[in-house]
Amino acid sequence: MPEARVIPLRSDGGRPRPRTRPAPRRASRPGVGSLQERTDAARGIEPRGEVVDAVEGGGEIAALPTAEGPTDLEARVAEVGEFLQRRLTGRYTVDDFGFDRDLTENVVMPLLRPLYEHWFRVETIGTENVPLSGGALLVANHSGTLPLDALMTTVAAHDDLPVPRYLRMLAADLVFGLPGVGAAARKAGHTLACNADAEALLSAGELVGVWPEGFKGIGKDFADRYKLQRFGRGGFVSAALRSGVPIIPCSIVGAEETYPKIADIGPLARLLGVPYFPVTPTWPLLGPLGLVPLPSKWYIEFGEPIHTDAYEPGAADDPMLVFNLTDQVRETIQQTLYRLLAGRRNAFLG
Questions:
Q1: I need a labelling partner for 248 at 20 to 30 A (CA). Which of 55, 89, 144, 325 fits?
Q2: Contact (CB, 8 A) for 18 and 53
Q3: What is the CATH number of the domain that holds 189?
Q4: Per residue in 187-224, pLDDT tens?
Q5: Exposed/middle/buried for 192, CB within 10 Å: 0-12, 13-18, 19+?
Q6: How many helices (H) and strands (E) does the chain have?
């Protein structure tokens, strides 16, 4: 008879010891992740790993059943339900300018993110130059026939800064005169481009955005791309000086190629009451399909802030100072555009 082998028992009674394998980490943006993950994060609970059984000696590894939270789809459905409930019961706030934070967070931003992330593939540079709190005036170049550059900058300020901020844009009066567009712009946080509104927002600690070129910049021909137009009379500088907030030059590359404007039908523009009626390689030749922007590669760079709090009271009334600061901001943006263009290999590949 073969001799029996004696296998000593382990101190734990021979049971295989469970091993914890940490759950894979996922890159996330604000508002992404399951409902359980966000709840645990808010309570300071670390992500739970998956428990597996390991049999010593090279045995099979079998996963023990673990409690799973709701799926991403279930969490999204729950979020939509909560949002609709808030809207129907009126449990949301609107500020004095009409800004609806709840609507912007849950409707406007999700609509713009696919363009930002996948169509234009926007890269941001210099986010450390934007204050995380307090008033600041962001001044950017304007281009692209339609104001998509302003909308993409709004997403950049919200998603790419260390602390998400809502960019309160100063828009032309034409925007608020368009049916439906004006009301939507108000709810998204935009207001009329006037010194009174700008100073009120800056004094309240908001991040305010202005595009001083206006329709001259956005409606210029493709042949004049990335050549800054006149910055007006420097009203934005006066607002910053009176509020004592920094001015952040912002340079945007990529917007010029979205709708290359090759002609302007002036009589039709006057008939419709708009600054210009553009003709592009795809519009109006392709009809509604011509409204799809070309997928150019975008870069948004936030420059070093120009501080205004060191100036004496009443500096905003000094026309020479206002002119010099306006020219400084314009020249900073123009030189940054040239630098970004020099480093770009292709308008669509970057």
A1: 144
A2: yes
A3: 3.40.1130.10
A4: 999 999 999 999 999 999 999 999 999 999 999 999 99
A5: middle
A6: 12, 12
